[in-house]
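Working notes for the structural subgroup meeting. M.R. asked for a predicted model of this chain before we commit to crystallization trials. I am recording the input and output together here so anyone reviewing the notebook later can reproduce the run.

Input as submitted:
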Amino acid sequence: MLKKKEKTTKKEKLTFKSFMKDFISCALTFSVTMAAYHFTFTHLLQKSVVEGSSMEPTLYENDTLISTKIFDTEQGDIVIIKSEKLGKDIVKRVIALEGQTVDIDFDEGIVYVDGEPLNEQLYNEGEELHADYFVNTLTTNNQNSAAQYPMVVPEGYIFVLGDNRNASLDSKSNQLGFVPVDEITSEVVVRTHPINDMKLF
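Returned structure, recorded in token form:
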């Protein structure tokens, strides 16, 4: 009986030419990956890290956020704002859009938009709603603002608040006031860090 010849795989000899071929291939792959990453985070997405406690308990200090630069701002969205007045990026929740009327009852701590009280429970989910599911504290501090409520949001602006209402520098303060729409840089879509608390918005 004839034995079948075993196939032997001949190890390709490493030459300068083969080395350069592999090197160029890896370099091209790396370049394409970096170009895609650069394009994505220049034109499509934005990475941010939360500073301060103004959005607790929705967001906490040092949370890492990914937001999209392709968005259509709606009431209730969490947005990143490049504030010219404050000279820094801030993260806030959109409470009212241009043309909407905002009223705040600081005695009761309730925010009204177009005459309707905000249902703050909409910002979190749970089978049984209780105090922990209310995102913000009652809005009882007007931060010494001279603003007269109710007020109509002017064209080209939005009204924003932090979820931690009385610890947030936002539209109820003269230091910020109404925010120009063109200062919104992106809309938050996901919290990526801490890993065990990832969340889509």
